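quick one, 288 residues, struct below
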Amino acid sequence: MTASNISLEFFPPRDIAAQERLVRSAKQLLGLNPEYVSVTFGAGGSTRSGTIETVSMMHKLGFEAAPHLSCVGSSREFLRDTLNTYRDMGIRRVVALRGDLPSGMGGDSGDLRYANELVEFIREHSGDWFRIEVAAYPEVHPQAESASQDLEYFVNKVKAGADSAITQYFFNADAYFDFVDRVRAKGVTVPIVPGIMPITNHTQLIRFSDMCGAEIPRWLRKRLADFGDDRASLRDFGIDFVTQFAQGLLDNGAPSLHIYTLNNADVATAICRQLDLGKASAVAELLD
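---
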């Protein structure tokens, strides 16, 4: 495993105990030598300050940190100030998102409505200082009117200046490769990196997937349900399944992997150690 084929995602901790766990996890995952780590951004500002603090911590630990930046609920002034803060910190990559609408917030909240407008704003403000990642939805964004409309939205983000994309997680490889083929047919050539979700908690995974529109195949739902309260066995199955799934993506042309760590180093580390282990002896030695 090399720095060119893995990136990681973290979320800002909400209390001191969670912050301490995050620091321990981050230090453990530093040995994987990821290309960068992204830090999520709370809907409507719920963790905005936490994002900046977490980005600073990751940057000081030695990661290339990529903060999520959302236009929902954000004024141009706020976005300019945030970009200036990150630039002053030496941050060179951001993840530009529309963001989720909190309950009670109108659809036109904020000065910018769509992610392509945010990408344009970043380019106008910062030129080429930031490498810009955007989101992609192989199984179609849950709020999109159609697959073709969703594809056009993605193309617009790239035309606005995005450098590459991270997908929502999925468990259907055909959906990913079909999305890539359709994007390429539109003349878009930026890397489209599959998001990889570890499987450690059946109930949590179902909840996440129902919210974001990620399909869990029926056979996999049934298989996970069979483990019941046996979390250790589910964890082992999840590591093996996700590793094989991710390896298949890489073998068939995925440029790299973006792993949603859920701030837990153990499972992400186990998956990475199994991926192309014969080609990753140096990293394996670091983790022993």
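The CA atoms of residues 173 and 249 lie 7 Å apart.
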